[in-house]
Input
Amino acid sequence: MKQEGYSIKDLEVLSGVKMHTIRIWEKRYDLLNPERTDTNIRYYSDEDLKKLLNVSFLTKNGYKISKIAGWDQDLITDAVLKISEAQTSDSDYVNRLLLLMINLDNAGFESLLNEIFSKYDFEDACYSVFFQLFEKVGTYWQAGSVFPAQEHYVSHLFRQKLIVAIDQLEPNYEGASILFFLPENELHELGLLFYSFIARKLKYNVLYLGQSVPLEDLNKVQQKVNVKYIFTSFVNAISKTELEEYLQNLKSIFQKQKIFITGHQVNTHSPALPRNVKVVRSHKEFRKYMD
Output
């Protein structure tokens, strides 16, 4: 849990239930019982968040709030489990993963991961389920997190899965080379790993530099290695001016290469692009271009 508890806005972001609706459920059905700070600001606990997530899940599956509000936690949990066992949509998986993430339920998380990977191709599972989970908690392609300990836990698990999937692909050292890196002070690596997985799957020769690579190091790489494509991502907060300046510097280093960029900051700022820079909006778009 956040040290100061969750605000009602946090609950809205995580559960998808509008603040107005949460207030109505509190007032009419006594669903949640927030505490108050010394300055009389309401805040919510982990238990409040779990209950709201479960109740939201049930209402989306046809249950009436007037009925659920009178149930104890065991009844709510039993109803959620019964629905979960029968449902396999993307949004259902995201909600189930979110609950397991909050509880740091290692066995449950691993079991659900195996279930998801048995249904989906790894690439589709990443994009349709896991990235939606990270987006929901404000972590994938965004800076910051509502509850960092749990986010770090699930990010680490998913990173391990990605690295294993990449290692299982046969490298193609004779293919066209594509260089993956993150700019200096940029540490959000999951998206970069995912796109490097796709490139390796498509038989490209992947050169992976990872997090926080200074521009001067890229200059040295350019002098030593012949690469055809460059791929990077911008997640950390950056101004539009700084982003556009960085892209110009990148273009001056890699003048003959196609440069792919993605990330939350790219979507937020829609920067002016040098002629050899292309924005990647989705894995299918990237795959189509590279095919």
About this structure: Residues 100 and 108 are 7 Å apart (CA to CA). Residues 148-167 form the longest helix (20 residues). The chain has 14 helices and seven strands.
